């Protein structure tokens, strides 16, 4: 039993490590240890390949969005819905992951959902208007489910290196997004200016990940054999602050994934140049996604770090939208540094605001489920505003509202406290 607490949360890196170790010890007391890994390198390779596939279905659409909308006769609002659907499904389907894992085992669920992801990419590319929307929905649902399960497998099978492997996992996410953003237009041109083949190419990495992951599914032993009920989380103010910070910063991120190339094309760049700018900005996130959480745990809390990374993000966004095009790459680098930090801090806050692994799992589900649902409204709003105004200038107001909101809720979420809940075994 875990009683409500007001004990201050750990703020330094050593305290974070102690939290992870304590959580692992709690887990060992309530469930049987998994069998020893015979080929940990194969599991690690599988984890990296799976993580690489959690962003291409999202970031590959943006560089060719103008071609897709022109080819299918979609309005800007419809295009906004197209960029919104996958993000909305990230939130709506994330809560299904623990239930599926308890029934089938995490490894088998991941294998099956990888197939669903590959099928979604195929449907999106080959079935016209209906296929584009259905495939986008399926892709978002698939990514939402897998994204909840991977961190738990990392923590279970690599408990002594959970922090390092989480960093590798985050870097793989960013790398997959960058590759798809930068390569989709060249692929489209290589395939005779066929955006369908350019987008459909990304089912190949998903199939490759399935092949490498197959041994894990065959020997999978399940992750969620013991179930805990956490009470009071949805009434906790701090939990909502963490959730809304996650959602608002994610909304800005998916606006960038979905609309930044279109914005830059509207400012005079070619589709290839716009895709490369997005790709470069995402690659820069590799730096801050590792460094920002480490720096944030040096002080007494994370409030200053949250404000800094969000201000850097807003500066990059406004620079890409309004500043002279000659300085675009500098603003794109600034945007990447800011957004890598905001995303990594959002994940770090889930751990720091939780007393143990069971609370962290439930807070993660809440933050992702509600947060990504909130985040989906941003890309749709950008498409709607563009449709109403016929340009991109007014989109700056959306950036400002989301950024200020993220700072406000981030200041609450960044305090050195724990969410106050009770935890009991089902």
UniProtKB/TrEMBL annotation:
It holds the Pfam family MFS_1. Gene3D superfamilies: MFS general substrate transporter like domains. Keywords: Membrane, Transmembrane, Transmembrane helix. The chain crosses the membrane at residues 41-58, 78-97, 109-127, 133-154, 166-187, 199-217, 238-257, 277-297, 304-325, 331-352, 359-382, 394-417. The keyword Cytoplasm does not apply. NCBIfam families: CynX (TIGR00896). This is CynX/NimT family MFS transporter. It comes from Pseudomonas promysalinigenes.
């Amino acid at each position: 039993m875990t009683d409500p607490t007001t004990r201050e949360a750990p703020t330094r890196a050593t305290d974070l490590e102690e939290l992870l170790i304590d959580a692992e010890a709690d887990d060992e007391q309530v469930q049987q240890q998994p069998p020893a890994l015979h080929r940990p390198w194969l599991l690690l390779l599988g984890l990296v390949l799976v993580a690489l596939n959690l962003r291409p279905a999202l970031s590959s659409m943006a560089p060719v969005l103008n071609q897709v909308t022109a080819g299918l006769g979609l309005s800007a609002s419809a295009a906004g819905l197209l960029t919104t659907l996958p993000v909305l499904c990230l939130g709506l389907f994330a809560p299904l992951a623990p239930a599926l894992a308890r029934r089938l085992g995490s490894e088998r669920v991941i294998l099956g959902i990888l197939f669903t992801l590959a099928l979604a990419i195929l449907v999106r590319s080959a079935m016209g208007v209906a296929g584009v929307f259905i495939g986008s929905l399926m892709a978002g649902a698939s990514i939402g489910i897998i994204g909840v399960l991977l961190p738990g497998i990392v923590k279970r099978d690599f408990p002594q290196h959970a922090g390092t492997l989480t960093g590798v996992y985050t870097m793989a996410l960013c790398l997959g997004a960058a590759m798809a953003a930068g390569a989709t237009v060249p692929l489209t041109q290589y395939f005779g200016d066929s955006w369908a083949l350019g987008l459909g190419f990304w089912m190949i990495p998903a199939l490759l990940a399935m092949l490498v992951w197959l041994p894990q599914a065959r020997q999978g032993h399940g992750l969620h054999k013991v179930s805990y009920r956490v009470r009071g989380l949805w009434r906790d103010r701090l939990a909502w602050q963490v959730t809304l910070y996650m959602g608002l910063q994610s909304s800005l991120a998916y606006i960038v994934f979905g609309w930044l190339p279109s914005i830059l094309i509207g400012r005079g760049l070619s589709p290839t140049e716009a895709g490369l700018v997005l790709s470069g900005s995402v690659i820069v996130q590799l730096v801050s996604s590792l460094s920002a959480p480490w720096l944030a745990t040096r002080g007494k809390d994370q409030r200053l770090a949250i404000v800094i990374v969000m201000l850097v993000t807003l500066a990059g966004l406004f620079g890409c939208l309004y500043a002279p095009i000659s300085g675009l790459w500098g603003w794109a680098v600034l945007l990447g540094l800011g957004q890598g930090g905001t995303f990594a801090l959002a994940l770090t806050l889930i751990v720091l605001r939780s007393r143990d692994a069971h609370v962290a799992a439930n807070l993660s589900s809440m933050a992702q489920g509600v947060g990504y649902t909130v985040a989906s409204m941003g890309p749709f709003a950008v498409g709607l505003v563009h449709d109403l105004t016929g340009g991109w200038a007014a989109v700056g107001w959306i950036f400002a509202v989301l950024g200020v909101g993220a700072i406000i809720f981030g200041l609450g979420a960044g305090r050195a406290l724990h969410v106050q809940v009770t935890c009991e075994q089902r």
